[in-house]
Amino acid sequence: MTSSSPYVRLPNDLLGTPPMEARGAIMHAMLIDGSRRAQQRYCDAALNGFPNARYNFRAVGDKVLVTAIYASEMRSLDPLERQNGFVGETDIAFWSIILCSDAQQKEPDRYMWLPSFMFVDSGPAMASGREIYGYPKCASGIVRAASGPEQAEVSVATLHFERFGPNERAAVRPICSVRATSSAIADNNKSVASFGEALNIEPVDNVPPFPQLGMPQVMLRQYRDATRAGMAALKEILVVTPSAGPITDSGMLPSGLEICINPSASHDIRSTLGLMDVNPVSLGAWLSFDFKVGWARRLLP
């Protein structure tokens, strides 16, 4: 159910108003091996639960994309809010590539990115992502080892349950990290364009050569109903397509990187995506650029 009422701007509201623009961003993109079956289970839970839905979604590969975005300036382009200033934002995310099919065959099949876990370094970034678009963001502590564009080492800690139980207390603990092994060396034998081939999907013609640029992202946006147990007051599927601005530089990340996943009951990245505790990066690249996140399109209901 949607509302036709205007949004009330309150003085304690730091949520960004779309469209959003990031300037001076560095993105690390890394591919690791997961499980298509595990990703399909998550895809079904997040996207395929609408009865008689026009669109169907399916995971099309085993690969999992892990991105780290470091934006020095994130600002709203809303005529009122753009005068307020900007914030910085760091975003570590896990993505599955899926295929969206139209049962009415009025639209062609489209590849999309489905996020399952996203960790950001501020409460407003978490709230804006979840409330406006449905991105599954968690406010977290993120520590980057070095600021060079080709240096991908980073660690993430967030509030989570390591195990469930009536006497267990959630605590801020490490949840994932990117680390370089002793064998990490510069990877000069591949190019940014290798990403389309590395995803190992057919066809690859309409897959952008670098992840996320110009490719739709699809999210389940939902809110619990405060008056009925187990019900949702709002439940919809949104699609948004970030667009790249000026690209100032790019390159390959060193080979020998690993993505480590810690055990968690509440944030079970391993089982959700079919990952191991240590996951070698098969291909990694970095990009220095600006980008925009505009208005979303509602697919369902």
Describe this structure in words.
The model has no long low-confidence stretch (mean pLDDT 89). The chain is mainly beta and 301 residues long. The longest helix is centred in the N-terminal third of the chain and has 12 residues, at 36-47. The protein is built from 4 helices and 14 strands.
Summarize the helices and strands and which ones pair or pack.
Elements lengths: L19 E14 L2 H12 L7 E22 L10 E16 L7 E11 L2 H11 L3 E8 L9 E7 L10 E15 L8 H5 L18 E8 L7 E9 L2 E10 L2 E7 L7 H5 L4 E3 L2 E11 L3 E4 L1
Parallel strand pairs: 4-5
Antiparallel strand pairs: 1-2, 1-13, 2-3, 3-4, 5-6, 6-7, 7-11, 8-9, 9-14, 10-13, 11-12
Describe, in short, the structure shown.
The strands form two sheets. The chain has an eleven-stranded mixed beta sheet. A three-stranded antiparallel beta sheet has the order 8-9-14, covered by helices on one side. The chain has 301 residues and is mainly beta. The chain has four helices and 14 strands.
Report strand order across the widest sheet: 10-13-1-2-3-4-5-6-7-11-12
Mean model confidence by pLDDT:
89
Per the principal axes of the C-alpha atoms, what is the gross shape? globular
**Multimeric state:** single chain
Order of helices and strands, N to C? EHEEEHEEEHEEEEHEEE
Radius of gyration from CA coordinates: 19 Å
List keywords for this structure.
301 residues; mainly beta; 11-stranded mixed sheet; 3-stranded antiparallel sheet; 48% strand
